[in-house]
Amino acid sequence: MKRMVRQYVTKATQLMQWGKIVLPLSSIKFFPPQFVIRNPVAQGVKSAFREGYEAAVIVFNLKNLKELADFLGPAEFPKFMGRFRKVFREAVEAEVEEEDIISLHDFYGDGLSLYVRAGHDRNGLSVIDSIMIKVAGRGRRELHAEFPEAQMVLETGYMFVEKKHYSIQEAILKAHQQAVAMAEKRIESEFNEMLFIMGKIISQKEIFLLAQPIIDVATKEVRAWEMLTRGPAGTMLENPFTLFSVARQTGKLYELELVVLEKALEEIRHIESEQDIFINFTPLTLGNARFIRDVKRLMHKYKNISPKQITFEITERDSIEEMRDFIYNIKVLRLMGFRIAVDDTGSGYASLNTINEVMPDIIKIDRSVIENIDKNSVKESMLKGLLLVAREAGSLVVAEGIENEEEASVLTRNNVDLAQGYFYARPRMLEKKIAT
């Protein structure tokens, strides 16, 4: 009887150790595992949405939990799991900005789920990817140093929380389930369903494009349009964050971005536009060895469209240093007549490094620099510095995310070339025969 009691206590202790919800840094609290979606998580996600951010969940699952328990035994396994939680919490604290952490959870005992806020543009995707890789790598190294004989198999995946869902708690749970499916890539799981759906979207080109005008700051005339992608209307993939995150994790990102290019060319031909068109591409696609061949094929199909009308806008901050074909492809695209823009300038070192590597024709200044610039002299000094960088690189400047007249006035007095944002116009469908 005593032996049975001891076994029960040991098992209960293990379960209790795994029944924790770890909230950010200084405000760590613990809750039992049945309260999966607690108010702190929902409130954190709501707060991120209110502040104009996206929210995403990243899961770190131990695939071989049972094998680890058998290998380590009842004495060492609880220690390993305790260290697993502590090491990954420390990795999160080291690799993620404190204000971007919503919560870190132990949901089901086989891994951890990290909720973070992400930027309001597609650069948020590469940020999530980077967090996932850095936290997982750091956690693996730390645990391997302490338990070198324990062969940990860690699976990772992520998903954005859907903003339009009628229930925030259900949206959080749904995002978590989809992230787990991405991590586990199980047979007969949601991963295969998403793979099928993404394949169908690509094969049938089931996306649509909106366009936001890029305005001449001095004359207030429309000089160009940026094409913005949306997935199938009325579905979870209509949201571009979800669409591109699923495409990235299912290995369909390159094919999706080619569909975006073809759709944009179709749009230009249909409306007979002669204005410049900006189209977003990740460095992963621009650095693909097949990209130049595929661009030439599409331009041959749309012979009436000049490459000089198209600007390839480099989104996200994937590292370009290890992309052997990236710089080569950029040079070839320029020889073909295309222009190159770098997005999100001013949001971090990576964008400035990309400018140095690419020497773009156009530099787009991130909303984080522009927001409340009329009330912040430091931000205006940053803008002036970026304008100097642009002049040295021979680049035009587009200021993004202008939302009011006060911000626009700062651009005028600093002689910024171009601007876009809700102050000028919201994204919309393009119409035939755009006025020039």
UniProtKB/TrEMBL annotation:
| Domain (EAL) ranges | 184-436
Q: Tell me one GO molecular function of this protein.
A: cyclic-guanylate-specific phosphodiesterase activity
What is one Pfam family matched by this protein?
A: EAL
Q: What SMART domains is this protein classified in?
A: EAL (SM00052)
Q: Which domain of life is it from?
A: Bacteria
Q: Which residues form a coiled coil?
A: none
Tell me the CDD domains matching this sequence: EAL
By what name is this protein known? EAL domain-containing protein
The major lineage groups are: Bacteria, Bacillati, Bacillota, Bacilli, Bacillales
